[in-house]
Specification:
nucleotide-binding; binds guanosine-5'-diphosphate; GTPase activity; hydrolase; 7 strands; EC 3.6.5.4; 12 helices; alpha/beta; RNA-binding; seven-stranded mixed sheet
Length: 295
């Protein structure tokens, strides 16, 4: 995760620390290199430009240059701005419903079904909350069976959906059942497609209108970089999402999606998937990630 960017930034700042006294030129040169490093990490160009402007405004000035540890000050400014870029102190799930309705949306192959199961396990173990898994992906063959199997593995109940039912029927029946049985949350695996299409979006909009979910989380594959950012943007514009779960982060050495999504969509990354196993889901804390990037 962020390995390449982290290595580059560390080299840049090591050089900066090598100057006892910092001039404006030193800082400008370092920030130019930071810009290149971010672009190479596949961060959205506009996001990089605005980021650098904010850093520059704070880093260039007497206060930083006259301080006893000027390079440390610059690094702190970059760390703080990276944190802000990714969403500040982190965003919690809204679990105020009875049950809380959490819809996972996204394209096929993004990791939606797996993430439903991971999230149910997470809520059970970290929050002591009971979840009802709802397989409403009637589009991808075997998605229903996949969720049923994952639920079995975890000892988490899965609504017995039939492929002959519509997603709306599945969700309404599951919600009634969840209310009756007193679950804390229902987690809905919605149908994706290979590409964004109108039919999928309409189906999701209808579900949203009818169910009024507390959370609509877009599941996107971090390895696809700026494609993931564009997908998040489109889903947010068409449907209105409450956050993003970025999957396959452990295989993404660049980190461009994670660094761009909040700035482009204004919606926070709430979790990241870091492996195929069902415990490989982590809460996304921008401040910790920024510290990790800067070593
Ligand atoms: P869906 O079509 O969106 O429901 O996708 P699936 O849940 O079936 O996931 C597609 C593939 O991605 C599966 O092989 C998952 O095991 C894998 N996957 C999901 N999340 C992660 C992750 O965080 N890391 C890795 N490496 N693989 C993941």
């Amino acid at each position: 995760m962020f390995d390449n960017l982290s290595e580059k930034l560390n080299t840049i700042f090591k050089k900066l620390k090598g100057h006892g006294h910092l001039t404006e030129e030193h800082i400008n040169k370092a920030l130019k290199e930071v810009k290149l490093a971010l672009l190479e990490a596949d961060v959205n160009y506009k996001v990089v430009k605005e980021f650098l402007n904010r850093v520059k405004e704070k880093a260039i000035g007497q206060e930083v240059m006259r301080s006893l540890t000027p390079a440390q000050q610059v690094i702190k400014i970059v760390r703080d701005e990276l944190t802000t870029l990714m969403g500040g102190s982190g965003a919690e799930l809204n679990l105020k419903g009875m049950p809380s309705i959490i819809m996972l949306v996204g394209l096929q192959g993004s990791g939606k079904t797996t993430t439903c199961a991971k999230l149910a396990k997470f809520l059970k173990e970290k929050g002591g909350k009971s979840s009802y898994l709802v397989p409403a992906d009637t589009y991808r063959p075997a998605a229903i069976e996949q969720l049923q199997k994952l639920g079995q593995q975890l000892g988490i109940e899965v609504f017995p959906a039939q492929n002959s039912q519509t997603p709306m029927e599945i969700c309404i029946n599951a919600l009634t059942e969840a209310r009756r049985r007193g679950y804390d949350a229902i987690i809905i695996d919605t149908a994706g497609r290979l590409h964004i299409d109108e039919k999928m979006m309409d189906e999701l909009k209808q579900l949203k209108e009818r169910l009024m979910p507390q959370e609509i989380l877009l599941v996107a594959d971090a390895m696809t970089g700026q494609d993931a950012v564009n997908i998040a943007k489109t889903f947010n514009q068409a449907l209105g999402i409450t956050g993003v779960i970025l999957t396959k982060m452990e295989g993404d050495a660049r980190g461009g999606a994670a660094l761009s999504i909040k700035a482009v969509t204004q919606k926070p990354i709430k979790f990241v998937g870091v492996g195929e196993k069902l415990n490989a889901l982590e809460v996304f804390y921008p401040d910790r990630v920024a510290s990790r990037i800067l070593g």
